[in-house]
Amino acid sequence: MSVLACRGVCKRYGGVAVVDDVALQVAPGECFGLLGPNGAGKTTTLRLCLGLTHADAGEIELLGEPVPARARQARRRVGVVPQFDNLDPDFTVAENLLVYGRYFGLAAADIAARLPALLELAGLAGRAGSRIDALSGGMKRRLTLARALVNEPQLVFMDEPTTGLDPQARHLIWERLRRLTHEGRTLVLTTHFMEEAERLCHRLAIMDRGRVIAEGSPGGLIAAHIEPHVVEVYGDALDAWLAPARTLAARIERAGDTAYLYATDPAPILAALHGRPGLSYRHRPATLEDVFLKLTGRDLRD
Questions:
Q1: What was the pLDDT predicted at 301?
Q2: Which of 16, 2, 37, 28 minimizes the C-alpha distance to 297?
Q3: What order do you get walking across the sheet with 258-263 strand by strand?
Q4: What range does the domain containing 279 cover?
């Protein structure tokens, strides 16, 4: 049984297909990622799944309920971490959780009983009485995550949950999200961080121009779309070296002053680079970011 199912979902604005024939299925207990360049349709897809935006075509089922017809009933069992924190600055940490819980009809005593566990998960134990403007960006993001769990949801939607955070805060949130999946929660997240998707997601879909262009596990997508080895080469002598070296790689991409050579066997490339003046290089395994850039391109998206 799927926690979330989309079939043939479409949404147009001004004649432009922002979401175009999207089909997705999310299984209970998995972390499902939705990746794509800016404007790919990720946030609109989340809004459609929540019933906050109505689709022009297609079917959506959220926790067994048809959307948008019974979206309100389904959302009672859903948590949402928005792209931008919208905590109430006039309330304390605890008051933000209390007021949010009341939106779900929870009794104040029940919310108060959940506060210690929520604050511990957010790394905010001892900060219940702190004002929002006294919190760091990482603390606010973790509080927003805790707030999304106040109704003990089966499914949590997260729109770019770690954008703008420093590495320490990002890693702490990753640890908390892994804890949620170990507890059996289902997560659906959008992210621009390929490492985040590779670390957290059991499965993911890559969107571009409103359509799903690839879907699978991170490892499966890497194996299906990219040669296993990547050699990044840069330096003043790159142009002179690259012309005769093109036969050594299965595929070469150029971005600015760096060439990316993709190969099944990197040995000939590394031998050709050894001891060459004016060049620096890095040999690494292929990653999800390589898949993303191959499928969606390296051009800047506004």
A1: 62
A2: 37
A3: 251-255, 258-263, 229-234, 280-285
A4: 227-285
CATH number, domain of 279, equals 3.30.70
What pLDDT score does 299 carry? 74
Asked if residue 195 belongs to a domain, the reply is no
pLDDT digits (tens, 9 = 90+) for 45-91: 999 999 999 999 999 999 999 999 999 999 999 999 998 888 999 99
pLDDT in tens, 25-48: 999 999 999 999 988 999 999 999
Residue 263 tokens read as: 């190969």
R_g of the chain, CA atoms, integer Å: 22
CA angle, residues 283, 225, 42, in degrees to nearest 5: 105
The H helix count followed by the E strand count for the chain is 11, 14
Give the pTM: 0.91
Instruction: Identify the pLDDT of residue 25.
Output: 96
Closest CA to 186 of 19, 26, 6, 24: 26
Backbone φ/ψ region at 210: left (φ over 0), alpha (ψ -120 to 50), beta: left
Q: Are 207 and 46 in contact (CB under 8 A)?
A: no
pLDDT (average), residues 218-240 = 96
In a domain, 27, yes or no: no
Residues facing residue 32 across a β-bridge? 188, 203
pLDDT at residue number 297: 87
Please name the residues in contact with 298: beta carbons below 8 A apart, sequence gap of 6 or more.
253, 255
Ranges assigned E (strand) in 155-264: 155-159, 186-190, 203-208, 211-216, 229-234, 251-255, 258-263
Structural domain includes residue 176: no
- Cα–Cα distance measured from residue 177 to residue 171, given in angstroms and rounded to the nearest whole number: 10
Tell me how far apart the terminal alpha carbons of the chain are, to the nearest angstrom. 38
Does residue 8 fall inside a structural domain?
no
Contacts of 215 (CB under 8 A, 6+ apart): 24, 203, 204, 205, 206
**Domains in the chain, number:** 1
